[in-house]
Amino acid sequence: MTPELVATMAFGVAIVAYLWSLHRDLVGIHRELAGLSERMARFEGRLVGFVRRQ
Fold first, then answer.
1. Measured in whole angstroms, how far is the alpha carbon of residue 41 from the centre of its chain?
2. Helix (H, G, I), strand (E, B) or coil at 42
3. Which pTM value belongs to this model?
4. Is residue 25 helix, strand or coil?
5. Which end of the chain is more exposed for a tag (fewer CB within 10 A), N or C?
6. Cα torsion for 10, 13, 18, 24, to the nearest 10°?
7. In terms of DSSP H, where are the helices of the chain?
């Protein structure tokens, strides 16, 4: 194996590792936004119920 081939393979592995890490971070952000959306919907329901009482 030539040094150029080894360098190319190492670079490819580094790119795949970076993309994998980025994907994992984006999945975490997506989960946090889903939780926030659920909490906002509950808050909105309570607010509507509070306004209708008065």
1. 20
2. helix
3. 0.58
4. helix
5. C
6. -160
7. 3-53
